Automatic annotation (TrEMBL):
Residues 28-190 form the Glycosyltransferase subfamily 4-like N-terminal domain. Residues 202-357 form the Glycosyl transferase family domain. Keywords: Glycosyltransferase, Transferase. Signal peptide: none annotated. It holds the Pfam family Glyco_trans_4_4. It comes from Arthrobacter gallicola. This is Glycosyltransferase. PANTHER family: GLYCOSYLTRANSFERASE.
């Protein structure tokens, strides 16, 4: 029986559509999740193809040893300053429609952008079961352009997926307000693979902020908290690693007038391996972000066993609190400074947090568990395709 189930799993053809893939930090967390899911599914035996948009000339197709292929499609900025939602390109929706006809299930990481919206609309004619995941990015809005988009376009898109994968209760409430029935939602988690590195407590204390220098991540509050902690006598260094998305100038100005400029380091954007290395040798990873639904960096740090100081506004806070795997702090400079000072003075607390974080990752956020959860959700989506058009198979693009 087990052999039959394995054979069926190996025959499953999954098409993932991950939105913007690059270059560099332009991709963001959604693409990282799509890559992680695709790799986990391939390791579980599924044949996976992942599509992503690329600003500029796209890289060649990636073909790994596992049944996992990544294909990049060119997207453009139709006008100067166009952000994620304004990127345009027909190649990705076209590839999605063609490849979707030979897939068993299509998993779309759906946002209010052209490429994933157009791809989803084209997929409705293939008859393939569509599973959507919005990563908390589809929320009701009072902005006039968004309301127009939702009324004339998004409401049709929302009818296509047979199933919606959600990360938090808030995301489910938002989708319900947009018209998605609760019965079409299933909860999943994000995950990262078992890392090669493992955290070790450094001799010289280092508190790490590794995220985009964007307003929601609050890098300036991290700096303000660090200055308060230094003024109170904490002997530590503070590292900010991540691409600038509007906050770098403010951060540099705060550091320059802090009186502790020598205690800070701004590294800019790091590669994934460099981020892991920085996490593995820091005293604690600190994320003071506001309204943060599901930060992958926290899961990556937990996998390494890094002591965590995380905002109470983080969507992962309930799991972290239940497991005793993080220090939860209000996202204010004073609260963060106190959390860093207390944790910096308590070796045993850091050791306990590390062990609990590793246990939490293996129990909840492992790649193996993610793959099995996704496969079960895909099977449910396939069994719930009522009233869809017959499948029309065509050979994929190779």
């Amino acid at each position: 029986m087990a052999d039959d189930q394995t054979a069926q799993t190996r025959q499953l053809r999954v098409l993932q559509i991950g939105g913007l893939a690059g270059p560099g930090a332009a991709a963001g967390g959604v693409w990282a999740v799509a890559r992680m899911q695709s790799a986990a599914l391939a390791a579980a035996g599924a044949a996976v193809e992942l599509l992503g948009g690329w600003l500029g000339e796209p890289p060649p197709v990636e073909r790994g040893s596992a049944p996992y292929t990544v294909r990049y499609c060119r997207v453009r900025r139709p006008f100067p300053g166009a952000k994620l939602r304004g990127l345009a390109g027909l190649a990705l929706p076209w590839h999605a429609a063609v490849l979707g006809r030979s897939a068993d299930v299509v998993h779309v990481h759906l946002c209010r952008d052209f490429i994933t919206t157009a791809a989803t609309l084209l997929l409705r004619r293939t008859g393939v079961p569509v599973v959507a995941q919005s990563h908390g990015m589809l929320v009701p809005s009072g902005a006039a352009p968004v309301r127009v988009f939702d009324r004339f376009i998004l409401r049709h898109v929302l009818r296509v997926p047979a199933l919606w994968l959600t990360l938090t209760a808030q995301e489910e409430r938002d989708l319900q307000q947009l018209g998605v029935r609760r019965s079409r939602m299933r909860r999943v988690v994000n995950a990262v693979p078992e890392p090669v590195l493992r955290w070790s407590d450094p001799e010289q204390q280092v508190f790490l902020f590794a995220a985009r220098l964007a307003a929601r991540k609050q890098p300036a509050v991290f700096v303000q908290a660090a200055v308060e902690a230094l003024d109170a006598g904490l002997d530590a260094r503070f590292v900010l690693a991540g691409p600038d998305q509007g906050e770098a100038a403010k951060v540099r100005a705060l550091i320059a007038r802090s009186g502790h400029a020598e205690r800070f380091e701004l590294t800019g954007e790091l590669t994934p391996d460099e981020v892991q290395a920085a996490m593995a040798r820091c005293t604690a990873f600190v994320l003071p972000s506001l309204n943060e639904p599901y930060p992958m960096a926290v899961i990556e740090a937990a996998a390494l066993g890094v002591p965590l100081i995380v905002s109470t506004e983080c969507g992962l806070a309930p799991e972290l609190e239940l497991a005793g795997a993080a220090v939860l702090s209000e996202p204010s400079a004073g609260a963060l400074a106190e959390a860093m000072r207390k944790l910096g003075a308590d070796f045993q607390a850091r050791s306990d947090l590390s062990a609990r974080a590793v246990d939490l990752h293996r129990t909840v956020w492992s790649a193996e568990k993610l793959a099995q959860d996704l496969l079960s959700r895909y099977a449910l989506a396939g069994s719930s395709r009522h009233g869809q058009r017959p499948r029309r198979r065509k050979a994929g693009i190779r």
